[in-house]
Specification:
heterotrimer, A mainly alpha (285), B mainly alpha (288), C alpha/beta (374), A: 285 residues, mainly alpha, two-stranded antiparallel ribbon, 11 helices, 2 strands, 3% strand, C: alpha/beta, five-stranded parallel β-sheet, four-stranded parallel β-sheet, 18% strand
Amino acid sequence: MLFQQIINGLVAGSVYALVALGYTMIFGILGIVNFAQGEIYMFGAFGAILTLNATGSLALAIPAGILSACIVGLLLERFAFRPLRGMHPLIPLISAIGASIFLSSLARLMFGPEDRSFPIDFGFEGFNLFSAYITWLQLVIMAVSIIMMILLWLFMNMSRHGKAVRAVAMDSDAARLSGINVNRAYVIVFLLGSALSGVAGILMAIYYNSTSPGMGTLPGLKAFSAAILGGVGSIPGAIIGGLVLGIAENLGAAYISSNFKDAFAFIVLVLVLVIRPRGILGSGR
Amino acid sequence: MSVYIFHILIMTGIFAILALSLNILAGFAGLVSLGHAAFFGIGAYLSSLLMINGLGFIPAFLLSGGITSILGLTLAMPALRVKDDYLAIVTLGFGIIMGLVFLNLEITGGPDGLTGIPPVRLLGKPLYSKPGFLGLVSGILALMIASTWMLKNSRIGRAWAAVRDNDTTASFMGINVYYYKTLAFIVSAFWAGLAGSLYAHYTAYINPHTFGMHTSIQILSMAVLGGLGSIAGSLIGAFLLTVLPEALRKLADYQDIFYGALLVALMVFRPQGIMGRVKITDIFGRKS
Amino acid sequence: MKNILWSAILVTVMVFAGATSLYAEDIKVGAILRLSQGASDGLPAKRGIEIAVNQINAKGGINGKKLVVIYEDSKDSPQTAVAAYQKLVSVDKCQVIIGPMMSGEVLAVAPVAERDKIVVITPNGTSPKISQAGQYIYRGCTTSERQAAALTKYAKDKMKTTAVAILYSNEPYGKGCNEQFTKYFNELGIPVVISESFMVGDRDFSAQLTKIREQKFDLIFIPGYLQETAPAIKQARQMGIKQASMGVFGDMAPKYIELAGKAAEGHLNCSEYNEDYNTPVNKKFKAEYYKIVKADPKEPNNIMFAAITYDMTRLVADAIAKKGYSADGIRSYLDTVKDFDGVTGRLSFDNDGDVNKQGVYLFEVKKGKYVKVQ
């Protein structure tokens, strides 16, 4: 059972990690706690489901979902965050909370209050690995998280835009003086963060076969914790943070009490931060 | 009609105490908490359980504040190791853990919550009248405002300000940073516990839902919207965010959409908070 | 400072303007429903009230006066439910409230209503504590007690169940079911071998299900709301839990089958309402409800919630017609009403204000449809 529980934890953790990647981008680089990240995730899922219902093509639905997440992310950046740049981090935090309430109520009116099932059933075939059973879908989710992490890392370290973003993160004034378009860097960060959350939203809509206006709240919160646990702004940190949280809560629920499942993630978080106040891979900003 | 107004004013008063108590933590000492509703809940459950088990209102009320402040001290210990965003997430975690404790303990009534909480008793008589209760809440709020104002302008208040602005510099100036941060947690938790006691005896029923994360966020929004560091700001923030949802009731399905949009708009157009100290030109000056 | 004062005044005016009455001669009844959070249950409840109100007003209203229902959103929060109650009672002068829908909200409103002497009828607060909440507090759905008696008996007699695993939702409804069903199973000599919980909003149940899978049992019981119970049964099947499954009336909607897919097959659960209940009132109600659902693809479809509020609204209207519009009049009517011809059965109320119906109906999912088994 232990091995199966660790596998369960790894799958749940990959999801947290995927959303956490979006968080850590926006949060680590702009210093904004984007409480509306969960809503971006939700819009990604709805974008995919509605397109799939309308066209029946999965190849169209996935980009459409990512696109809707990006649009929501860009609108957020433009209207809720850009006017607040450079202020105490609490100010954009409240703005993000407002945006999150706005977006989830908007979704309820646009899409109706009910959970929707994913139009394609991917089944649950899988294979045995030692004493545990893993489905192909779970494997895909873990693989996508890893691929996303590698792509993101390559973008940030190899491409010109990625380097510009990193320069802005270090010192936005100095970056502007050296000719970097700071606004564009912010937009890129939001675009990437939103796209990652969109991917996570679509994967989860498939995996849990349900999409609803409130679906983003809990994963958003867990992802926020995962990003902090791993260390703000660190891409591998977000992945490790997500996996640690996922495993902690699965083992806690299995061996201590399922009544306190959500608490274990936070107990681990508090313990880690007490020992390492900058998170597992955080280097300080 | 009047009963409704009194109800809203009483809720405003209770939330004003909460917003102001968070302001002591976040506005005065610079310690942002995303789990403030946990203190509110601890006070509410403690006071209810003490009174259900035969204690009078006044001892139950004071004990709920006192014991909550001791719990504030225990949160302060891990919380002081971390800063800023990390502190926010530690307090958020504290709020979530406490919420699960309320939900799963036998003594708190589990998810059903506590029913049959006795009313406030003063001079041997139960206080049921709404104007009377409003008087009590206002009295305690006034006491809190006075003591907070004195604290803010005392040596302690100046030490908090120094710690908030830069704790490294503060420690070079000989201020015991840990001591003052812990003190902020204790004072803040004390008042939040009292607010919980008032709320529990006013509504006569509490359940874990009321003390969840969304309430923590609501309290923080009140303090930030009113203006961090400003006493009057917390009162105005509490008033606006208690009355606004009531004002938006008429919009039926659209009330949350407007509430969310207004919150964003308020921050964008008056980011320093309604009573914030920062001049608007400073903010535009800093903007790129 | 001036601006702040003005905005405060403006907001206050906004609260109270328009809250004044529509027409003095209308009969105003309040409803506190789940219209934002949990609207998938709250909207059907609202439709039930609307159908009843339209029928009553089409027949000339109550003693010549129009029946008007004022809806307020509870946002799933006890605190908001109490504010909504205060508004309905002190601004709109309602004497009777239909709602709130969640046990926690009912228990929060109850002490205030009891002191104000205002009748509160909850359509689906199932907590046993509501029975003792006060003399003005009524309940329109059967308690989980009666569901437990019917389902556990069926499990023993027909399904020959010998051991049970429970996975419950950790809120008043699911937890109450966990306790009551455990009691009933034990009385029938069927042990509950494991009892695990999940939170509202959870979508990942693998930790609990992995633990459950290790146990020996022949029935898995999952009480809660379908937003969680449908993915839960789906994951249970994915993980190779093949035993029979059972739920409570939270699962009684086509949405459950849609979300659970093939995993729903054979699922046993119970409902307050039987669509094939053969009375003229029910046929008319059913036709009108499905007309609304078909008209809008976004409209949640859950006829049971509509059926309960439909019955409660008609009871309230009948009470007002016979005893006049006062809380005490309505109360004396509800306490003495016998065999009211409702769509959920023949209704009366017991001493605790809980509704009496003939019983609950058991359903099983067969080929993607609910089929009545008893």
